[in-house]
Amino acid sequence: MTGPLPAPGLPALLNGPTRPGVYRLPPADSPAHIAAAAAEADWRVARLRLEGVQDKTSFLERCAAELDLPEWFGRNWDALADCLMDLSWWRETGKFRGYLLIAEDWDAFAAAAPGAARTAESVLADAVDFWADREAPLTVLLS
Which residues are CB-neighbours of 94 under 8 A, at least 6 positions away? Predict the structure, then answer.
């Protein structure tokens, strides 16, 4: 189960003391505010807007569109895992301190498709674990 972002919150995540993970976005923080703060701290940010997503197929389609996944993305769980463990498609020129994925409207998606949400969360957690001890870790915030 995903827990809340530990205190002191976003600053500790972006600057090191808080380990990368899959966390709940603090209710007082908006995704736009979080994305701006992360970008300012030299993190690469992607927002995954899940409004209206009701099932696995629409979740994977939204991932492809919102995250601008590579053409080889096969629109299945294994292909999503492959993309999240090879972030070459997400990198730009320059170095980032980390990668932050903000999944918005997660609760509505989880209510509409609990099985797909559990699987998606597992794929996200595996990717976070893969990148956790690397120079530029991946963290996921669910809102």
Answer: none
